[in-house]
Structures are given as C-alpha cells and as structure tokens.
Amino acid sequence: MPHRLTVITHEACALHRATYDHPESPDRLETVLSALEKAPLGEKPEYYQAEKAPLETITRVHPLAYLDRLKRACENGNYWFDFEDTFINEHTYEAALRACGAVVTAVDMVASGERERVFCPVRPPGHHAERETGMGFCLINNVAVGAMHAREAHGISRVMIIDWDVHHGNGTQHIFEEDPSVFYVSIHEHPTFIFPGTGRRWEQGKGEGTGFTLNLPLPPGSGDAEYLEVLEANILPAIEDFRPELLLISAGFDAHRDDPLGDMEVTEFGFYMMTKKVVERFESSGGKGVVSVLEGGYDLPALARSVEKHLIALTE
Ligand SMILES: [Zn+2]
C-alpha cells in the first residue's frame, strides 16, 4: 500500500540566511520544495505550515538560557553564533523555532497514528547542535527535540534516529549517549577527514546508554556499494534487535558524489535504496511511523534528485 506523504515546513525557514555566499542557503529549501512538487509520489502530498515549537518542548534538550542567548544574538543583529560558519540573522530565531516545530508536529502525527510518513524540509538544520552550543550551521537540534518529545509526550519507549548525512551528528549523539531509549545510528565520512571530527566506531554510548549509539564511519570515496554493504551488515540488524516504535531520519544528502562539502560517491539511487531497506526492515520489525528531517545537501541539482528518490522510497 502506498503511503501519502505529509510535508511540514514554513516560509520563515527561507528567511534565515548568511550575509555572504554560504552553502547552507535558502536556495536549498526552494530546490527541495520544487523537487517535491514534481516528484512522482502517487497521491499529492499534503502540506502543513510549521508552528513554533513550544519552549517547554525545546528545553527538554536545550536549556532556556541557551535559547535566550540565541534569541538575543538574532535580535542584536549578530552575524554568527558560537562559530563563524554558523551564521544568523534577524529571522533566524523564528526559523529555528519553526524548523523544530515542524518535527514536533510530525512526531505528534505519527505517534497518534494519524500519519505514517512525514517529511520536514526545514532549515536551519539540527544534528550538529549541542545542548548549549550552536555549530556546523545548526542551532536547535530538531531531531533530538522530536525524539525527546516522542518519549515525554507520547510515552514512546524506543526511538531510533538514523543519520546518513555525510557529517557525524555529534549533537544528537551527545544528547542521547546515556539514554537507552533513543538509539542513534550514524553512517558518515570518517572523522579523520571531515567536520566535526567525532563519530568513531568505538563511540558506542555511555553508562546505561552503552550499545545504543552505533557509528559507522566510511573512508572518503565510498559510494552506493559501500553504503549498502554497511547498511545490510550493521544497520538492518540493529533495527531488528531494537524494534523501534518510531523512526526519525536525519536526512542529509551531502554524501552525494556531486556535493562540494563531502568526499563520498553516493548517488540518488543509493539514497533510494537506503531509504527503502531501512523502512522495510523497520516495518517488518513492527514499526509504523517515519519522520524524515532535512539536514545537509549542498549541490542543488543533486539535492533535488536525491530528495525525490528518498521520498519515492519513503512512500511507495
Ligand atoms: Zn552534513
């Protein structure tokens, strides 16, 4: 049975921009939305405007003092936050609240069983954001807030986050590394070669969370075959063992061979296959709701083709 896709985004996400040429540009969002319009998805997707995530929902991950600091920096007209590459402008605070709000609503929809496939094309992205530090173009960890919301508001006891952005999601890993109820899986370019320098194989969680972080670094030049091999050997068995009730995908597309920020050789077919296999195994392990959240992906034509293939696999 094909699934109808639900899309949650907000135009404020396109107002967040750098004052100089930056790869994480509003054009990315426009590209993704126009790819969505043209994608052969069977039934036309239904669109929702993202609300701002409530502060009490975000503060399960980021302290209020951090959010206040971010808000003030945006109001003050600062150009960047915590790191020079992590730009902000006067619209950033709203964009970040809406981006996070999209994921929170998506989690509400799938947790209640109303929807089964939700895509959040939002920016700023989230997976590098630590509890009290913005970095790597990320300010609020959208997926982490969504996972925490699933547990606290809906009593979901097993959430899996699969992150195939070419960069390791240091923020997401650190937020959940002591938490056995949220299993973080990341497949990424080996940290020796790329930002942020974390995500080695031996980082497997801490304390009660030991065994619930799975890092699968790959050498530069890895393509579809290498990704699918690691997926089959490591990720699919992890899904089967953990039996997640909710699957969140940190959907970055910067492992594409055309991407200027990564050194990988993945094609849109690779993203199609990864999505297909992950979702199939999730469903055969008893799961239903999938929320996919845009992270990176900086070559616009490659991003458009990859998102299209990802969404086809997500809904067919
Ligand atoms: Zn990335």
3D structure, described in words:
By secondary structure, this protein is an alpha/beta fold. Helix content is 38%, strand content 16%. It is built from nine helices and ten strands. The strands form two sheets. An eight-stranded parallel sheet has the order 2-1-5-10-9-6-7-8, with helices on both faces. The longest helix is centred in the N-terminal third of the chain and has 20 residues, at 92-111. Bound molecules: zinc ion (ZN).
- CATH-defined architecture: 3-Layer(aba) Sandwich
Number of helices: 9
Using the alpha-carbon principal axes, give the shape.
globular
Low-pLDDT windows of residues: none
SSE order and pairing:
Elements: E1 6-9, H1 26-38, E2 46-49, H2 55-58, H3 64-75, E3 80-81, E4 83-87, H4 92-111, E5 117-120, H5 142-154, E6 159-163, H6 170-176, E7 182-189, E8 213-218, H7 224-242, E9 246-251, H8 268-284, E10 289-294, H9 300-315
The structure holds zinc ion (ZN).
Summary keywords:
single chain; eight-stranded parallel sheet; 38% helix; 316 residues; Arginase, Chain A; alpha/beta
Concise synopsis of the structure shown:
The protein is built from nine helices and ten strands.
